[in-house]
Amino acid sequence: MDSRLRRREFFALAAAPLLRGMPTPIIKTVSVIATEPAGVRLVVVKVQTDQDGLYGYGCATFTQRADLVVEAVNRYLAPLVVGRPADAIEDLWQAMYNSSYWRNGPVLNNAISGIDQALWDIKGRQANMPVYQLLGGKCRRAALIYAHASGREIPEALEQARKLMSNGIKAVRLQVGVPGMAAYGAPGGPHNPPQASPQDAVFDPEAYVRRTLELFEAGRKELGPQVELLHDVHERVPPRLAVQFAKDMEQFRLFYLEDALSPENIDYFRQIRANCTTPLAMGELFNNPREWTPLIKDSLIDYIRVHVSQAGGLTPARQIAALAEAFQVRTAWHGPGDVSPIGHCANVTLDIVCPNFGIQEWTMPNDRLLEVFSGYPVMKDGYAYVNEKPGWGIEIDEKAAAKYPFGSFEEGEHKKRNGGWGVVRKPDGTVINQ
Ligand SMILES: [Mg+2]
Q: Any catalytic annotation for residue 231?
């Protein structure tokens, strides 16, 4: 053989490992960071590999049952994944999902998400790229966000909306309290709980609907036609009333009406669609990507609402987004305070890589949250920007996280319920959805 050719072969072989990146990282340890810096229990999974300094973080936050997710990770998923390659993300997702035999529940899906998102973080750090680059790169510079405005009274809610708008925010979710009741997403006034269960909240769907229509009447008039307005029903009204309410809200030209129905009543979306053009968002309580299929393929909703960790992480969330894209349905990933900063980074990453992005729910971090997590997406002029560091670009100060154990900033019944939510009843005592 020609010696020049042999030399070339030698150099090609020597260069191959470099061209292919680092050797496959193997999962060495899996641990959980449980912290509550902003008064909401957050669960984050840390996956460490056998390569020095190569690790990743994933959001596994199911705040209402946080302790159970911690156990699911430590006692079941960690023993399954330790020793396996960290770079086969889809394969590990399928392995974790199927390994319990009985699958597809919120505790297990959140636990899987913690590891799934940590593996994406690891892959990004290994490639020295933000995760959005691994997904094909940006198709928009930033994500349009909406923020929450609420008040005990209508003028207070509108004042908050004006404040947000003066800070450049272009879309506002409006919620208002209802006298004598515990409303969703707004401060409640003093209310009379059902006598038999004084620790529970009381909610009258009819009174809520009347009050919310008043709020939007005043809101559209006072805030003007340009601002995008949203509202979350939080599945608190019966289906027949939801159909009427969506129809009555049509005149206010919402960006969307969220969770008008509960997952148990999704057949009623067909009736809402037949009666009005109010845009509809649905799905934060679904467990599995397939649960969106009938709503998406029959064009019964306009936006998918997904708590990404609840669906099992970034891996299944991408699949739901792709399914939605084929049917002109857009994304609206769940982004309140019960998503960890890792989860917010995953949301904004999806926002900037999915062609069918719709809007991003936004939560302003408080100082304690930023003390624990660095790299939170930045919001400017009503848009969220992902950070440009490798992986999710988030680092966690574990000592600071330990300063705020579960239960910090919780009081009374909420603390007694271990951070869980309570019970909501109609005035006659009937339990209804949260
Ligand atoms: Mg919601």
A: no
Say if residue 59 is in the same domain as residue 182.
Answer: no
C-alpha of residue 307 to centroid of ligand 1, in Å: 9
CA–centroid distance, residue 90 to ligand 1 (Å): 28
* C-alpha 88, offset from chain centre: 24
148, 231, 234, 334: the active-site residue: 234
Measure 248 CA to ligand 1 centroid, in angstroms: 20
Catalytic residue among 97, 132, 146, 184: 184
Domain of residue 221 covers 134-391
For residues 27 and 78, state if they share a domain: yes
Q: How far is the CA of 395 from the centre of ligand 1 (A)?
A: 28
Say whether 208 is catalytic.
Answer: no
Please give the model's pTM, rounded to 2 decimal places. 0.93
Q: Which long-range contacts (CB under 8 A, 24 or more apart) does 336-340 make?
A: 336/148, 336/361, 336/363, 337/38, 337/39, 337/40, 337/363, 338/40, 338/41, 338/42, 338/61, 338/63, 339/59, 339/61, 339/307, 339/308, 339/309, 339/363, 340/42, 340/43, 340/44, 340/59, 340/61, 340/373
To the nearest 10°, report the CA torsion of 317, 434, 266, 296. -20
Q: Which two tokens stand for residue 104?
A: 């597809």
Q: How many C-alpha atoms does 230 have within 13 Å on its Cβ side?
A: 27
Task: Give per-residue pLDDT as tens, 17-61.
Answer: 443 567 899 999 999 999 999 999 999 999 999 999 999 999 999
The CATH number for 119's domain is 3.30.390.10
Summarised one tens digit per residue, pLDDT across range 112-150 is 999 999 999 999 999 999 999 999 999 999 999 999 999
